[in-house]
Write a structure and sequence with these properties.
Helix content: 55-70%
CATH topology of the largest domain: Rossmann fold
Number of domains: 3
CATH architecture of the largest domain: 3-Layer(aba) Sandwich
Number of strands: 7
Distance between the termini: 31 Å
CATH class of the largest domain: Alpha Beta
Radius of gyration: 21 Å
Number of helices: 15
Bound molecules: cobalamin
Order of helices and strands: HHEEHHHHHHHEHEHEHEHHEH
Mean pLDDT: 87
Structural class: alpha/beta
Largest sheet: 5 strands, parallel
Shape: globular
Length: about 325
């Protein structure tokens, strides 16, 4: 017989624990296996069961990570210590941003603040709004609902002469900087599940690759971000050196570069058999059949990436 008052009773399945703590089931498993974040019980069928206390611990850990802490640094903290850190970070965030992120506007409001900042060439406001997106939304929401639409709109504004190329470049620099910082600070620096992310030679658009880096870090992967315009041999070497389980590439423009498909073929040959090669971006959609024929996974969006990461974890 279940007693509601018993907060230590292990009774919630993983989906409930994930929903209540604001994490994904995949991240919950990673935080458990790699960092011992909580120790769920097991049902008769061997499925994970979480107590109310476990869920509260996970919720606090999630808030600590959103506040900029590494999961490896906070996973083993006692409840009181964790609560104190979360409260301290919350106070600091409120001081910096003048509001409580717990009641911040949704992605539409943040996107509109970003666009407003771009139109006014207000670099600080742009950085501030992007920070709000990354702190207040999940990685995948921040990417799909703020960063991608912002960059597309920026392109339109540039094409219509509504924004000076210098401003467009400056905005791209800020977006790049914020994404690099976030991707490298969220994920573990040396976790077991490692991913190498880059764009191949000739592909100068790197925001898609950075978005992938952020999503992978948000799923608990250790990210090695190599930047844009890299030869296949170098990417393969980095993957070997890092012991990567996955290599993700972004290919956007040009999509008719005769060297593009051969590069993916070369990379596929050079990677160890157990390394997953994933390619996303508009040019990947165009060459999907060729890429698939050499064993690459072609991704339409970041939900595909998340699925592939979960699958590579072997625990979907
Ligand atoms: C910023 C920008 C640049 C910057 C890039 C800086 C940087 N560090 O990245 C600079 C100034 C260098 C640049 C240069 C050029 N650019 Co430009 N650029 C843009 C702009 C404004 C934003 C690009 C961007 O970041 N988009 C946001 C990202 C996230 O979108 P995305 O790359 O399409 O990715 C999406 C998906 O494909 C997916 N995805 C991408 N990668 C991956 C990877 C994985 C693993 C997954 C799961 C998903 C995924 O995620 C996104 C989903 O929303 C776009 C406008 C636009 N509409 O995108 C033009 C745009 C891409 N550029 C364009 C062009 C033509 C150029 C130039 C030729 C311009 C010129 N005349 O010099 C050069 C080419 C440079 C080169 N050698 O390739 C065109 C491309 C047209 C086309 N597709 O044929 C666009 C669309 C502008 C336009 N409307 O004409 N550009």
């Amino acid at each position: 017989m279940v007693e509601d008052a018993d907060n230590a009773k292990k009774r919630h399945p993983i989906r409930v624990a994930a929903g209540r703590s604001g994490l994904t089931p995949g991240l919950l498993r990673v935080w458990e296996s790699r960092y011992g974040a909580v120790a769920p019980g097991r049902s008769e069928k061997g499925q994970r069961r979480y107590s109310d206390d476990d869920i509260e611990q996970l919720r606090l850990l999630q808030q600590a990570v959103q506040g900029g802490r590494r999961i490896g640094d906070v996973a083993s903290l006692e409840r009181a210590e964790l609560e104190a850190i979360v409260e301290e970070d919350r106070r600091e965030t409120t001081r910096r941003f003048g509001g409580d992120l717990g009641v911040v506007e949704g992605s539409a409001g943040i996107l509109s603040a970003c666009l407003d900042a771009v139109e006014r060439s207000d670099v600080d406001q742009l950085r501030h709004s992007l920070d709000r997106a990354l702190l207040g939304l999940s990685a995948i929401e921040a990417v799909q609902e703020v960063v991608s639409p912002l960059m597309r709109r920026l392109g339109e504004m540039w094409a219509q002469g509504q924004v000076d190329p210098a401003h467009e470049h400056l905005a791209t620099v800020i977006v790049r900087q914020v994404l690099v910082d976030a991707a490298l600070s969220i994920g573990p620096s040396n976790g077991n599940q490692r991913i190498v992310i880059a764009t191949p030679t000739g592909q100068m658009h790197e925001i898609g690759a950075l978005e992938a880096a952020l999503c992978a870090a948000g799923e608990g992967w250790s990210v090695t971000y190599l930047g844009a315009d890299l030869p296949a041999a170098s990417i393969a070497r980095a993957a070997r050196d890092r012991g990567a389980r996955m290599v993700a590439l972004s290919v956007v423009h040009p999509d008719d570069d005769p060297e593009l498909v051969p590069q993916i073929e070369e990379l596929s040959r050079a990677l160890d058999e157990n390394v997953v090669l994933a390619v996303g971006g508009d040019a990947a959609t165009k060459h999907a059949d060729r890429f698939r024929s050499v064993g690459a996974i072609v991704m339409n969006d970041f939900a595909d990436l998340r699925d592939a990461l979960h699958e590579a974890n072997g625990r979907r």
